[in-house]
Specification:
ribosomal protein, Large ribosomal subunit protein bL28, elongated, single chain, 102 residues, two-stranded antiparallel ribbon, 39% helix, Ribosomal Protein L24e, Chain: T, 3 helices, alpha+beta
């Protein structure tokens, strides 16, 4: 299991521990990942994804999973999230002609 957020693509970063005597030793900064059950309003399904706490706050700020996925770049999404995005776009495209006809 990779240590990468499935929605934002945030992964481990590298830096230094710096001691009082200014000796630098390499270290890794790991993202705070947690499993989350996310509800898609358009698809009517719940998806379990492993996302960072920052991504969870971003989802709340942007208004939910559907809005986030539609605006997200394909390069930063995991294959599972990309599959959900494709399903979502297909569902929204199917609903759009019905809204125009009415």
């Amino acid at each position: 299991m990779s240590r990468r957020c499935e929605l934002t693509g945030i992964g481990p970063m590298v830096g230094n521990n710096v001691s009082h005597s200014n000796i630098k030793t390499k270290r890794r900064f790991l993202p705070a990942l947690a499993p989350a059950s996310l509800q898609s309003d358009a698809l009517g399904q719940t998806f379990k994804l492993r996302i960072s706490n920052a991504a969870r706050r971003t989802l709340d700020f942007r208004g939910g999973l559907d809005v986030f996925l539609v605006k997200a770049k394909d390069e930063q999404l995991s294959p599972r999230a990309l599959k959900i995005k494709r399903q979502l776009k297909a569902k929204l495209a199917a609903q759009a002609p019905a809204a125009v006809a009415a």
